Amino acid sequence: MPPVRCSSLFRLAAGFAGLAALGIGAVVLCLRTVDLPQVVRINSVADLQRSYAALGYALEQVRRHGRVPPVVLAAVPRDWDSGLNSDERKRLFFQTVLPLVLSANQAVTNDRDRLLALDADRSRGATLSAADRRWLARLAWRYRADPPEAGRKNGATDRVIAALRLRVAPVPPSLALAQSAIESAYGTSRFATGGNALFGQWTSGSGMTPEQQRAGKAGWTVARYSSPLLSVEAYLRNLNTHNAYREFRRSRAATLQQGGVPSGLSLAQTLSAYSEKGAAYTQTLQAILRTNSLAALDRAVLEPGPTIRLIVP
Question: What pTM was estimated for this model as a whole?
Answer without folding.
Answer: 0.84
